[in-house]
Amino acid sequence: MGAPKQKWTPEEELALRAGVKKHGSGKWRTILSDTEFGSVLKSRSNVDLKDKWRNLLVTASFGSRRNLKAAQKKTLPSSSSKQNGDNDANTTAMTVVAEANGDDAGQQIVPTSPPSGSCDPPTALQGSYTRVDNMIIEAVTNLDKPFGTDGKSILRYTEENLQPYMKRVVTSRLKHLTKAGTLVKIKHRYRISPDYKSAG
Amino acid sequence: MGAPKQKWTPEEELALRAGVKKHGSGKWRTILSDTEFGSVLKSRSNVDLKDKWRNLLVTASFGSRRNLKAAQKKTLPSSSSKQNGDNDANTTAMTVVAEANGDDAGQQIVPTSPPSGSCDPPTALQGSYTRVDNMIIEAVTNLDKPFGTDGKSILRYTEENLQPYMKRVVTSRLKHLTKAGTLVKIKHRYRISPDYKSAG
DNA sequence: CGGTAGGGATAGGGTTCT
DNA sequence: TAGAACCCTATCCCTACC
Fold first, then answer.
1. Which one of A161, A162, A182, B162 is least enclosed by Cβ atoms within 10 Å?
2. Are B53 and B61 spatial neighbours (Cβ–Cβ below 8 Å)?
3. What confidence tens digit (pLDDT) does each residue in A160-171 have?
């Protein structure tokens, strides 16, 4: 029963890193289709790429996925109130942008699904790091250089990785605003509703 | 990275089952519009409902969509599968649909009474816009064209305008993580702290 | 053009092998 | 016990079709 576990070669790993850098994390099929990397990774599936990338990330940051899960469990609070003065991790895609935009703006952001204290099940907590924090850690890990990573590279990395989220968030909010009547959609195009009253 | 996957809660699943029982399978938009279920399912789209129902069907009759497809293609079991608990495929695709519309799918379906708990406020918040919402509104306003603005232009606009925010946020979090000891800054470059793995 | 059905891709938990 | 490679499937995304 020799399930020949095919270990990743340095060339493959390099191609994967380059592929992620070019197309972004989560674009596994795209990376495979790219002739620049596809030849090197021809014996790997998109799921293989995803798994390997996860291993690379998690190993660098936590040592292992097991440690990561243990670290996440620690954050389980007994009280239902949030005391985090900084950003707190949430589970909706909206939060990504909310955090990204509202860091020091000091404003309250009301997502479409506000966290009601008693009814929502304990969805997996992220830990004590914000999404941006995790992106930064990911960036420093992936762009690993002998002497560390400079701030500009980190910024560029986070910007690139935010794009897929932005697409989803904007699409979602466009639907929401259209449904709520703020926008009017006609023939694939959006316009401000006549009813919309500018807040400022 | 984060949690792009919004897991279905038991309340939502119950509402979906009830909705299908009342309006029939395939009437996703109708179910969403029904005030009886719309509140519970307010964060779901009609496509989400379709997908979830497909999943429910398939898990009830087969082990997975994969097994279902295999069974549909040829009435032979695929091969030696470790996880497949259902030894004999007892139903065909036809039977699945019959179950879905007529009888219960082997589960208890809430009749026509609203879900017990009041997990959500009766009225949605109006006039609360996220920062992305405001960006969208700004985009539609600024890119105003005779016939409105298409989604792709809106997305590009928001992406471009997000960058200045990202710069502020990343800078802020870099300081924070350095101060907290997660990162170590040496000569304008950041590295993961050796304490990071065990820190908690 | 909106809604639906279906194929396919991804994320994350779980499992096996070393 | 840990780490790397691999499996399973709920959820999400894209496209054709009406």
1. A161
2. no
3. 666 666 666 666
A154 with B170: Cβ contact below 8 A: yes
pLDDT tens-place string over residues A85-116:
233 333 233 333 333 333 322 222 222 222 22
| Beta carbons of B36 and B115 less than 8 angstroms apart | no
A10-61 CATH fold? Arc Repressor Mutant, subunit A (1.10.10)
User: β-strand A189-192 against B183-186: which pairing, if any?
Assistant: unpaired
Q: Fold identical between B10-61 and B126-192?
A: yes
Domain A126-192 has CATH 1.10.10.10: yes
Q: Where are the domains of chain B?
A: 10-61, 126-192
CB contact under 8 A, A151 and B170: yes
What's the pTM?
0.53
Cite the DSSP H helix spans in A24-150.
28-33, 35-38, 46-62, 65-73, 93-102, 131-142
Which residues of B spanning 55-94 put their CB closer than 7 angstroms to strand C?
Answer: 69, 82
pLDDT tens sequence across B22-36: 999 999 999 999 999
**Mean per-residue pLDDT for A22-34?**
90
